[in-house]
Amino acid sequence: MASSAQPAEQHTNGTIDPAEIEKFSAMAAEWWDPHGKFRPLHKFNPTRLAFIRETVSAHFDRDTDSTRPLDGLRLLDIGCGGGLLSEPMTRLGAQVTGADAGEKNIKTASVHAREQGLDIDYRHTTAEALAEAGEQFDVILNMEVIEHVADTSAFMKSCGTCLKPGGLMITATLNRTARAFALAVVGAEYVLGWLPRGTHEWSKFITPDEMRTLMTDAGLKPDLLTGVSYNPLADKWSLSRDTAVNYMMTATKPGSTA
What we know:
It is an enzyme of class 2 (transferase). By secondary structure, the chain is an alpha/beta fold. Helix content is about 35%, strand content about 20%.
């Protein structure tokens, strides 16, 4: 069963953007509907899950053929939403903490995990609060969240503080390019209706160079960069060299996991 962690105190001087939290809280009940407002994430999930499994397994020298290659690893899913990543990470063996600033998201995630018989430590909290509490994780998933925070530098530094020496962070976000505006904002929100209008603000998108700077300033070492592209004919996402719209970047924290 999912644990009933107590909500942590929110920090009003941190990275929280109330408008962004309200936006996603309004859609909280639809997280697990593959045909609803989060349909793009459900379509995207197999690609990012495979990337996470392979990258984490390689970093910690785990057997990728194992059914539970993440056994023994403490993992933070920051900005976990309804738990679309937290649940499969738990099934792969990780000890998962799912954190989100939206209380409705955490309630949705907790109920769904309980229905699935999964033990996930869901918390209504922030990266800053976790860092201040001295929480440490082997793996941090920072997926499609940084473009929604108020202070990207403070947010990334909090994530860096929470990552153990020798640990791995995987970040996914949108590039601030004209093509990203055309496809991710105009196309996805206004033409195709994949996402509610106003889900993304193009000015908050982050270029790979900016991401590297944020990671470096947070005491992390940027590493792998890969694009993620959508094929409309196949209705499928896949990894690619094209980082003009969606991309993922990994970073490690200097030191030893021992």
